[in-house]
Amino acid sequence: MLRRLCTIILTICLLAALAPAVAGAAGEAVEIKLAIGSPTLSVNGVESVIQKPFQTNGTTMVPISVITKAFGAGLTLENNKIITLSYNGTSVILTIGSKTVKVNGAPITLTAEPRIVNNVTMVPLRVIVSAFGAALDLKGKQITIKGSKASGLSSSGNTGGINPDAGKTKIGDSYHNWSANYPSNLVLGASSDNGEWTSWENANGESAINIWIKTVEETLSKEELRQEIAEYFYGSEFAVEKTSIKIGGLAFEKIISRDRDGWFFEYRAIQQDNRLYIVAAGMKADNKSKLSTVQSFMDSFKPSFNKNDRSLKDITKVKDGFISFEDKEYGLSVRLPVDWYRDTEGSSPSFYNNDESIFNASISSLAEEDSAEKVYARNKAFRTANYAPNYMRNMTESSLTLKDGEARVLTYEYTWDTKTWYKQYDVLMVVDGFQYELDYSVLLEKDSEKLFKDIMASVDLDTDYVEENFIGIENEFDPAVDRGKTTKTSKKYGYSIDLNKNWIGTFKDFEEDSVLYYTGVGILYIEIFESMKVSDFIQSFRASVEEGDGKITKNTEAVTINGLQAMKLTAHFDNIEEGQPYVSEIYIFEKNGNLYALNSITYDAHYSEANIARMNETIQSFTFTN
Q1: Are 60 and 53 in contact (CB under 8 A)?
Q2: What residue stretches are annotated with the Copper amine oxidase-like N-terminal domain (predicted)?
């Protein structure tokens, strides 16, 4: 499990320079000596081993540790390639693979770019040293740098390391209420958005520490704590030791495990009130005794956080019960409650919590003939027609001022089953030819209004970034826009049908015997059965309805579809576990020894006149081509 989480930590793990720096007071004079081709670094006479500096295209490249350790510079990493060094108010931004460096925002072009060599990040020396106001002396291969330590904690939002010159020797999370000694020689590489798990790793990926926090409702026994630990085992991992230990008056359950790939792991579990803490260290080694190198950290862990301890760095991402989420690819930032999560699978920003609340964002280009008023009116008309009677109510309109412009808000309540109701806020803002849609849905029983306003007040859209990076992004699947139809034809099975262009095909090869499209309000499913009788199919369909806890609501009837004779059956499924009740209308044709079944599935909430007419139009377009 440890190694699986560690794969998240990409390039940042190579910045091992964030380990505790050479000791020294803030502002203290620093003399650095190193040489091209030599692994020896000397800082005020104290020697250490580094990756050998080298020259390329006239630029001297050194390990980034020379900068962070010797000068006490702060460091952050963005998108696994953009490095920001901060030192006494000076900012130096470098990008792996790019020859452009920005010093306090001013671009400078170099003859060589930062790169990763043998898992170590190598950076151009002169531009950084000059930016820090230090003196650089080059004599042959010998390099001498004279400067001073950073005057304080140099940081630009960095939570990835601790500057020991600011007196920080411990790390913890004030919201999740834990603390420990900073794990030396490891980098804080990744953590969940809300801090429920945190991971460190060394530069070569052969040592790692993780902390997981889990909410529990009951007091766990010794056996249950051990079971919780075992849930984090991964692959071929198996236990070799199970003990109960006491450290500093705290009782832990401890398991040591190993796997068949040469890794040993130590886990400790402790419960404090309704929180379960699991601390784990892993190491690639030939003997479990090597785990002794992490005992200092493991023994220092406490399920508590002392806010008065000035040596303790707080890495919490939670402020006033909210987390700041960023989606830089969409130019979006938003603050959401701590119990919210990011949907990491979606292509556009989407967030949710376990109470079924959802926040989505989308960006699309505004058509030339469109305007904010037209888009808003179209969305309102579509939503009104999209719900069946008794499934939507209390629609209201309002305006809202966001950080980036004026928005229109459509608010209404909806339900899937007439029992549980939700409140929906559709927010539309148009800026510089782009429409931004922010959708917030919450259970009606919740106090939604205040939270909605708090969330919207935090929304920050980088409209300049969108304008520079998004071009012609038409929302081709927007159900509120009628994009016409497209005719799909099957040569093999000799039929055609007209489908809405904004329907999404999952199985869309019409030369296969099954086709499936999502319609936005349900599903259209087409199946072809060779050598099957209508009576056999109807019997099979009835059986499947009964197995699915549905019921036939309209018996077999003869219908005419586009001049063709067909049979129709209607069923309803309302006992859907974690799903939406729906109507299934199935049309059955026979031709050339084949049976054709068109199954139109529409959710109850969307079984409206407009949607029924749209689907009937599609069904009526079905015809045989030979």
Answers
A1: yes
A2: 43-145
